[in-house]
Amino acid sequence: MAALDIQEIAFIGHPVSDVPRARHFYEGILGLKPAMAHEIQPGQWWIEYEIAGLALALSNAWPPTPNSGPTVALEVADLDAAAAALANEGVAVDYGPMDTPVCRFFGIRDPDGNSITIHQRRVASGA
User: Fold this and answer.
1) What is the pLDDT of residue 2?
2) Are 61 and 46 in contact (CB under 8 A)?
3) Domain 6-121, CATH 3.90.600.10 — does that match?
4) Which of 114, 102, 98, 113 has its CA nearest to residue 61?
5) pLDDT, mean of each 10-residue run, the chain (127 residues)
6) Are 51 and 97 in contact (CB under 8 A)?
C-alpha cells in the first residue's frame, strides 16, 4: 500500500445554509475574526477563521444535510501523486479535482461515508 505524504490538516470545513446567520454566530457570538472571506460566485461564500494554526472554514458551496456534514482537508505535498495512490487502492473520487487561485483539491469518503478533502496549496509566485 502506497502511503500519502500528508503534511498537516489544511482546514476543517462546515457547510452552512445561511451565511449571515453563520457569521453572526461564529463572529458575533463566538468572537472569531475572519482571516479570509471570499465570494466564490454571487451568493456563494468561503470564510476562514484561523484558530491556533488551523483554519475553520464555513461555506454554503455545499449544503448541510445528514449525508454532507463537516469535512477535514488533509494537506499533501503532491496532489497528483496522492490521487494516483488512492486510485491504486480503489478509492473513488467523490468530487473534483478542482482548482482555485490558492489551491487544488478533490474529495473522497472513508469506509463510513465521512468526507475527506485531499488538498494542496499552490506555491505563491513572485514572493
Assistant:
1) 63
2) yes
3) no
4) 98
5) 81 90 88 93 94 90 77 91 91 92 90 83 71
6) no
For the stretch 74-102, what's the b/e string if a residue is b when 16 or more beta carbons lie within 10 angstroms of its beta carbon? bbbeebeebbebbeeeebeeeeeeeeeee
Break the chain into its structural domains and give their ranges.
6-121
100 by DSSP, 3-state: which? Answer: coil
Using the structure block, give the residue that is written with the C-alpha cell 458551496: 61
Q: Smallest Cα–Cα separation from 116: which of 73, 79, 81, 82?
A: 73
Q: Cα 51 from chain centroid?
A: 15
| Residue found under cell 456534514 | 69
Q: What is the pLDDT of residue 62?
A: 82
